[in-house]
Amino acid sequence: MMTKIPSSGKGLSSRSGSCGGLAAYLEKEQLGQWFGQKLENVAGYQVVAEIDANKRNLGITDDKYYQIVLAPSKAELAHIGADVESLKAFTRSAMEQYAQNFGKGIESKDLVWYAKIEHSRSYDYTDRSVQLGEQAKGSLKLGDQTHIHVIVSRTENLREYKQGLAEGLHQRKNPYHLSPLTNHKGTTKGVVLGGFERNGFSQRVEQCFDKGFGYERSLTESFRYLHGMKYGDEGLKLELQQAATLERSQQREQARSLALATQQRQAELQAGLGQAYGQRDSRALSQALEQAEQIRQQQALERQREEAHKIELERTQRIQQEQRLEHGMRHQRDQGLGL
User: Fold this and answer.
1) Which residues contact 265 (CB under 8 A, 6 or more apart)?
2) Pfam families this protein is in (predicted)?
3) Contact partners, residue 16, CB within 8 Å, separation at least 6
4) CA distance 217 to 73
5) What is the pLDDT of residues 248-280, one digit of tens each?
6) Which distant-in-sequence residues (6+ apart) come within 8 Å of 193 by Cβ?
7) 26-40 b/e with 16+ CB inside 10 Å = b?
8) Which one of 130, 191, 219, 332 has the fewest CB atoms closer than 10 angstroms to its CB?
9) In whole angstroms, what is the distance from residue 166 CA to residue 253 CA?
């Protein structure tokens, strides 16, 4: 699961103005089909109108909106069958976590946000394969690339703010201004209270998916592992590598046990089929055929999961290889400078 809050990119060069540029860019696959906390099939012009109008007490150069990208891995997408309704439910759960992560006691209903699901992605200059000349910038990435873009207003939902003020639910003179790019993290003293812990948000989004869809996440595809292997010290990296090796060993053992159990069940089923056919027992034959189909579906699902996990493992190994390459290049540069 990749959870990203970009500070630059398509449509983000003018966050101090209208979100129209970003919304227009995100219409590239299909027009409309935006969704929010409760609304469905929202048109792009409505998204822009609502987010642009939801602002108060912000300067000309202040950010007015932000973008969030939620990109499930191929394994995660395979787990839910890339189901659109499941992805919408996941996005709504993730935005609840986004609101809570500011530490101000607000919920998703206190935000103004809209999201859009896209199904393709292309390589850009940030991809290592483009930097190494292995892929051309702008070429489409293979496989299931389904992901979600969210545009969220910086100002809390003014309608909810005014209603809460009128009902005596709060006495705040001004609505909250909510920036996920702030450097404050759980601040309890000073002018700015609360903050936004981006790493914590990424982990909670991951947990939303796991809990919502019963996904059994391996260590090597967790935020904790990927972030630790990229930014952690040598002690943490060694600890994570050892834990990953142990987990892979346990997974192989579980796979062998499952394969043996499946073979035994198939043998018993074949014997049952032969007996039912010999006795012309249509009911028993029907039950045996139904069980055979269940086994076939289970095997297909297991193969799909194994392939998805294989892809994730290759991705992790590629990240580690890139890190070693970058470390080696940095070491050579330092030596060249006499450091």
Assistant:
1) 295
2) DUF5712
3) 60, 61, 62, 63, 64
4) 11
5) 777 677 767 767 776 777 676 666 666 655 655
6) 103, 104, 187
7) bbeeeeebbbbbeee
8) 191
9) 62
Give the number of other Cβ atoms within 10 Å of residue 268's Cβ. Answer: 12
| DSSP sequence for 268-332 | HHHHHHHHHHHTT-HHHHHHHHHHHHHHHHHHHHHHHHHHHHHHHHHHHHHHHHHHHHHHHHHHH
pLDDT at 192 over 50: no
Q: Any idea how long the chain is? A: 339
**Of the candidates 190, 264, 258, 202, which has an alpha carbon nearest to the alpha carbon of residue 227?**
202
- What local confidence, expressed as pLDDT, does residue 333 receive? 58
Report domain 2-215's class: alpha beta
Alpha-carbon dihedral angle through residues 318, 324, 326, 329, given to the nearest 10 degrees: -140
Q: Are 299 and 258 in contact (CB under 8 A)?
A: no
In the Cβ-directed half-sphere of 99, how many Cα atoms lie within 13 Å?
Answer: 20
Catalogue the E-assigned strands of the chain. 2-4, 65-71, 113-118, 147-153
Residue 191: pLDDT band (50, 70, 90) is very low
Give the C-alpha separation, 59 to 66, whole Å.
16
Residue 81 one-letter amino acid? G
The position carrying tokens 């602002």 is 55
Mean pLDDT along residues 111-124: 92
Which residues share a beta bridge with 148? 70, 117
Beta strand 65-71 with 2-4 is: antiparallel
Question: What is the arrangement of strands in the sheet containing 147-153, beginning at the earlier edge strand?
Answer: 2-4, 65-71, 147-153, 113-118
What gap in Å lies between CA 154 and CA 62, rounded to an integer?
A: 10
11-23 burial, b at 16+ Cβ within 10 Å, e below that, comes to bbeebeebbbbbb
Work out the average pLDDT over 197-207: 94
DSSP string, 164-196: HHHTTS---SS--B--TT-S--SB-SSSS-B--
Model confidence at 335: pLDDT above 60: no
Question: To 10 degrees, the CA torsion angle through 48, 51, 97, 103?
Answer: 160
